[in-house]
Amino acid sequence: MSRERDHPQLAEQLAELAALTGGLAHEIRNPLSTLKVNLQLLDEDWRRVESPEANASIDPQEIARRSRKRIETLLKEAGRLEQILQDFLQYIGRRDHSPAPHDLNAVVGELADFYRPQAQAGAIEMRVEPAPGPVMAMVDVNGIKQTLLNLLINGQQAMPDGGALTLRVCAEPGGTARIDVIDTGPGIPPDQREQVFQAYYSTKKGGTGLGLATARRIVREHGGEIRLTSSPGKGACFSILLPVLS
Predict the structure, then answer these.
(1) pLDDT in the model for residue 4
(2) How far apart are CA 141 and CA 96, in angstroms?
(3) Could you tell me the pLDDT band of residue 13, with boundaries at 50, 70 and 90?
(4) Rounded CA gap, 12 and 114, in Å?
(5) 100-243: which CATH topology?
(6) pTM of the predicted model as reported, rounded to 2 decimal places
(7) How far apart are CA 90 and CA 151, in angstroms?
(8) Are the C-beta atoms of residues 216 and 198 closer than 8 Å to each other?
(9) Where are the domains of the chain?
(10) How confident is the model at residue 225 (pLDDT cuts 50, 70, 90)?
(11) 10 Å Cβ neighbour count for 129?
């Protein structure tokens, strides 16, 4: 019997590693191709400038304009590669959790205040619905805030023409705390609801596809889970479920 069959968790980890490496290769291919093409075009232009035979027919200002435009593209794609690498390292890296008792109402309120200017810039109304009383949980506050931030960014990207984002906190029966991140976007089709948590799966142009995967990983490291409910045309709700501090 194979090692993978003896250890299902190992098989799952190997499958995830294969998906990550394949996804990373796919993500960097397009920016690298764009970098190469624009560098070749820059090289051709400047070879013409250096050629004594062609100097009489060259318009220096036109060469300069083309060069500036290509340099802008190079900088943009270099930034894109940097973001891909940053997201990848964040996803695979070891996180030094520092769990401590926190009131999730306060955590959500602080993050909402931080994110509100970005939401307003995108014509997004930011709403906060705290629980009636403190909802205490043992969490790494930076990890939970990063998770919520990823979900807010994902929700805003789903509403390019504006809408509303709601952060809701409640305590459920059975010792569970719940934080909902709700958007008023177009919703997520049923066949995509599990895929959205997979690394490098993204339906958004320019997305790296690691935001939701990272969010789920952080929540699981807290002993919790993340759920998605959505109806086409009626937005999406990502629910973070965490153990309540007894």
Answers:
(1) 47
(2) 12
(3) low
(4) 37
(5) Heat Shock Protein 90 (3.30.565)
(6) 0.66
(7) 16
(8) no
(9) 3-92, 100-243
(10) very high
(11) 13
